[in-house]
Automatic annotation (TrEMBL):
Catalysed reactions, as listed in the record: GTP + H2O = GDP + phosphate + H(+)
A GO molecular-function annotation: ribosome binding
Gene Ontology annotations for the cellular component aspect, listed alphabetically: cytosol; ribonucleoprotein complex
Keyword field contains GTP-binding: yes
GO biological process: gene expression; response to cold; ribosomal large subunit assembly
Subcellular location, record wording: Cytoplasm
CDD domains, sorted: BipA_III, BipA_TypA_C, BipA_TypA_II, TypA_BipA
Start and end residues of each Tr-type G domain: 4-201
The protein's name in its UniProt record: Large ribosomal subunit assembly factor BipA
Protein function: A 50S ribosomal subunit assembly protein with GTPase activity, required for 50S subunit assembly at low temperatures, may also play a role in translation. Binds GTP and analogs. Binds the 70S ribosome between the 30S and 50S subunits, in a similar position as ribosome-bound EF-G; it contacts a number of ribosomal proteins, both rRNAs and the A-site tRNA.
Assembly: Monomer.
Keyword Cytoplasm: yes
Organism whose genome encodes this protein: Pilibacter termitis
Primary location recorded for the protein, binned into one broad class: cytoplasm
Amino acid sequence: NFRKDIRNVAIIAHVDHGKTTLVDELLKQSDTLDSHTQLAERAMDSNALEKERGITILAKNTAVSYKGTRINIMDTPGHADFGGEVERIMKMVDGVVLVVDAYEGTMPQTRFVLKKALEQDLIPIVVVNKIDKPSARPEEVVDEVLELFIELGADDDQLEFPVVYASAINGTSSLSDNPADQQPTMEPIFESILEHIPAPVDNSEEPLQFQVSLLDYNDYVGRIGIGRVFRGTIKVGDQVTLSKLDGTTKNFRVTKLFGFFGLQRQEIQEAKAGDLIAVSGMEDIFVGETVTPTDAVEPLPVLHIDEPTLQMTFLVNNSPFAGREGKWITARKVEERLMAELQTDVSLRVEETDSPDRWTVSGRGELHLSILIETMRREGYELQVSRPEVIEREIDGVKCEPFERVQIDTPEEYQGSIIQALSERKGEMLDMTSTGNGQMRLIFLVPARGLIGFTTDFMSMTRGYGIMNHTFDQYMPMIQGNIGGRHHGALVSIDTGKATTYSIMSIEERGTVFVNPGTEVYEGMIVGENSRDNDLTVNITKAKQMTNVRSATKDQTSVIKTPKILTLEESLEFMADDEYLEVTPESIRLRKQIL
Ligand code: GTP
């Protein structure tokens, strides 16, 4: 018995391959009422940070209706810091729609999410998008996709994926790879979903099992648990039991249920096996918990939540310039905001400290915490943050630190420098395989501490061709001493006072600064280097324009145009222990600590 009226899919794509455009077009062409109004509303309040970074941060749910079948489409974040969330989303759905750019083909970043999907035995559909591009090479791209599937260990069912060629932007698609065959409809995509993605099993007569996979919060109804009804039926007014993660149970009455319609949520009275819904009425409902009937308590296996491994101090801005730019600057406001974040972000921890104006905030990694900081800044908050530190833990009397499993895909000419750099950072290589076409895959176990500051190094080491993903592996006994690595530096322009941070490849010895191509060095800049064991500051007293030289000394410099302005995470990597970032709605400045 199957719920033929439902399909649950997750949509995955590399940045900019057209996921959002495609989902919007599916919504437009579906029989979902008001889809145009909803799209206009979403365009207005969509997350600016997501747009800028080109990454999906918030998992979003869009439900479209096609020929009487409801298709729930879960948007999936693509970064390793959100690996736990990706895994939970993959458990809610029965298939995935992989969107691939018809010119760029498979990008290694897609791999991380696709691998999780294949591991869950999900059935894929491939949409080769942007077929309208003159440079499109659909045939080769499909071959690449096939290779990737094989490499990731796809089984026979998964390898028989249907391919639809589309131009999401034009609202056209076709089963043929000839751009001339494009039809002004998304029907082939809808039909492939209905035909290939399995409908959920209908066991709605059995006892209820609803599991919370994501959290949301809203001022009117409080905490909301989003998840899938895996079995049975849930109704408003039902007396149910919530099995908590700690093994205890709590009874509650279902006060509100929400279904997804287009981009909106609407109250519903009942939901059945296979439905993706949101439930409110239980104040401390949490990810992984199961709702069952009071007389048939049978929790589902606990879902994976990533452990926080990195912490930072957040404090009220006490710099001399405090309060000039921010709207929300007081300890009370900052604390309220952090607490609100906890309502929905399960990998985040916020702890009070001895002072009422500072908190220890722990999260999954640099990106995870940076996104919180950036979001607060954009909302008008002003604060300071310290250098990130890994979280140590005592296990059986042994001091331990977090280790990450790092997977690197790189052209083989860079493997030597990567292996060297990671061994300096106390990484242990677990595996090395050739993946064909001159590409290597390297797997390391690295103390999380050793990864702070590594991304920038890695990118320059591999000239941007390397792909690195890392996920928390386990806590292991602490490695003694400093974890070395390439030295980092930050260039802080004091003449503008704007403290733009630029990147430096390394400072090999006092006075000589090797800069990344793209870095501008000029008089009046302070070059601050920080490594674990020695900090130094070099004042650039004289800057000379020189070409073809990639080193700068106190009175000599190389200048290559367009300096790269570092992202917040990169700035965090460059911070010294006695520095903090002053974060305001207008800017992010690196300052000496005046705690
Ligand atoms: P993120 O959510 O930011 O990861 O990106 P995305 O995958 O959702 O991509 P998005 O839909 O934002 O599209 C990225 C860019 O590609 C936009 O500028 C789109 O206008 C463009 N685009 C999307 N679909 C097509 C297409 O079919 N053809 C062409 N030529 N451009 C497209």
